[in-house]
Amino acid sequence: MAMVEPIEPINRAHETEPVKKVRPRYRDAKESEADGLEVSFVAKTLKRAVEEAKKIPEVREDKVEILRQQVQNGTYKPDLGALAKILYKAGFGK
């Protein structure tokens, strides 16, 4: 049977160095007072896009009406291949 080498005892934990306190320099403190927040162009554009998207109704009544008429007339022909892909990606059929 092979011998397992002993693990070095953890006896040097008390030998850690003390944490040094760091004082901010006057120049750094003065510069931080002038710090500010600037919102990027991308963030502003994204905010506007979200606000505009919130104005769009969740249900597009015009699209629903067109589909309703197609179903009533018997002319509604859904893309079954696309539907199958959507259902497969959603976890159905696995």
Automatic annotation (TrEMBL):
Compositional bias (Basic and acidic residues): 11-28
Organism domain of life: Bacteria
Record-level GO BP terms: bacterial-type flagellum organization; negative regulation of DNA-templated transcription
Chain residue ranges for the region called Disordered: 1-28
Alphabetical UniProt keywords: Bacterial flagellum biogenesis, Cell projection, Cilium, Flagellum, Repressor, Transcription, Transcription regulation
Domain Anti-sigma-28 factor FlgM C-terminal: from-to ranges: 35-87
A Pfam family assignment: FlgM
The family this protein is said to belong to: Belongs to the FlgM family.
Protein name: Negative regulator of flagellin synthesis
